[in-house]
Amino acid sequence: MNLNQLSKKLFPVFIKSTENFKPCRLFLSVSDMKTRAITRHAVADNPADAWASALEKLKEAFGSKKPFILRADWVIESQAGTWADFLKLLGKTRRNYFRFGVAFDSNYDIAITESELNANALLYKDGKEGSANCVFRAERCNEYCQTRFNCDMPKLEPTSIVEIFKTAGVFVSEEEPIPIPITGTGLATGHRDVSHTDSGTILKMVRKGASFLANQVQKSGKFVYGLWPCFNKVVPKYNTLRHFSSSFAMLDVYETYRMGEAKIGAAINKAIKYGVEHFIKYRTLPDGTEVAYIYEPEEKEIKLGALGVILVMFIKHAKLMKTKKYYPLMNALARAIYTMQKPDGSFVHVLNSDDFSVKEEFRIVYYDGEAVFGLMKLYSLTHDEMLLRASQIAFQRFIATDHWKNHDHWLSYSINELTLYSPDREYFEFGINNFLDFLPFIYHRDTQFPTLLELMMAADSMLERLKTMPEMADLLARVPLDDFYAAMEARAKNLLNGYFYPEMAMFFQKPESIVDTFFIRHHAFRARIDDVEHFLSALTAYRRYLARRDHEPQPSKALLEGKAEGTGLYNIQVGK
Fold it and tell me: Cα–Cα distance between 58 and 203 in angstroms, integer?
């Protein structure tokens, strides 16, 4: 379809939606999905006149390119305030979580939508001088004004009047020719309405996310590590742990949906082959035992967490592909974890890969849970009692040190696995403690945080087994189940806002490189392989919960009034 054809599909919906808006402040955006969307706007008392004016400007700016998607946004609410008010508001809002547009004058001669502001990083400052909250980038905004309005950004004094505005919208594309409304507010601003209980839609998103990961596997088997989509920059460096954990996430999707997923299967095998050839280092112990470590070539170090994650990945691969090819390597990797475990059950976290000396006793809380999860998954395959004993000793240490206070998703995975084979009361109690006082944070947190859903899904598996054990009824009674499921669903709902729907991706530098994958908003919409893998693993598990969901959980007053983490503001609050 050409631009006129796309326009004719949208126009009736636009007219019906804006008949009560006078004046009508309309923004039209178009993209071929190869390059960033072009936006033009118009203001008129008659919506049809606003459409005609904006469309004429858009045709002139877009030229002869073939359009793929056309989007219309119109102002539904606005509030005037001073420039100083606006800057103050930004300072209270988490970076990339400003969900409104801004007009630099009351006539809307120069006005920029929320999508344009965030996709062009006009409010984002990172690096050593960065901020956790929004920062207005005058130099970037000036460059954008030159492109968008053919003029410099207006010079504004603290008392200059600006307008903050909220929009509704609709879009149509070659792929989705029936107009789709953009009705989201708050965290869901800027994209179509998606239900967190729609299993079919989540399935499509997960499959497309896995395809994105498969596409990042290069011919060599190494991943493109990640993308900064605002300006289409590749995330530098590499991480061997994330290489294998991303392979595991693809396996997670492949396990459930392998019919017709040959491309994903081929990418998995290619990535594993590359990892084995480039990131494995062998060592012979004094007693002649051979062990295998995963190491980081650039940092010349061995990380405990990577050993656990690669075991989990290899076990999944062995079961799905029905192969014993990597059994000897898996056993050698488990022996490497033994060499990093102390008699009291604790672990050394990092070794120097040159001489296997200790580099760091402790680095990050995740490594412990990753190591035990790997050992327990291997135990599920080989039933080697040494694996179980090492895991039990580790958890005795975790219990003694209240490790649950870290609320680590890997601990949730590992305790769920351990209780399958050692259903001891103290282990179940640890698993409950790992999430119980964390439910308000999980429910209210505004960033995507997909590992929180992973934590909940592993805990959910544990609780389902606990429900079948009458002798543990008192432990289960500690859990407010409706609060638990409400927090889980709130987290899943939030994750669906971290997906590059076409109507969002169109505003970034190279839309086709990021469309239909997942991102982390407060990290400049980063789409790194480990970001995507956590979304995939979390949502794949969440769909299994949806299959047995029998009611809508009702959160308690205590949960609703719990501490809301984050600084996102979702109502216009200029001057407040």
Answer: 35
Whether 570 is covered by a domain: the verdict is no
538 and 410 share a domain? yes
Residue 15 burial (CB count, 10 A): 14
Torsion sign across C-alpha atoms 211, 213, 216, 220 = negative
The tokens 């998703």 sit on which residue? Answer: 409
**480's tokens:** 């407010």
Could you report the per-residue pLDDT of 518-541, keeping only the tens digit for each? 999 999 999 999 999 999 999 999
- Note whether 163 and 283 are same-domain residues: no
Q: Say if CB 549 and CB 255 are below 8 A apart.
A: no
Residues 337 and 453 in one domain: yes
- The domain in which residue 123 lies consists of 3-188
Residues forming a β-bridge with 22: none
- State the DSSP H helix or E strand holding residue 50, giving kind and residue range, or none if neither: helix 47-62
- Write out the H or E segment, with its range, that includes residue 252: helix 240-257
Cβ neighbours of residue 78 closer than 8 Å, sequence gap 6 or more? 103, 163, 164, 165, 166, 572
Q: Is 332 within a domain?
A: yes
Task: Enter the pTM of the model.
Answer: 0.95
Task: Yes or no: say if 325 and 315 are a contact pair by the CB < 8 Å rule.
Answer: no
Q: pLDDT digit string (tens) for 205-228?
A: 999 999 999 999 999 999 999 999
Q: Are residues 137 and 207 in the same domain?
A: no
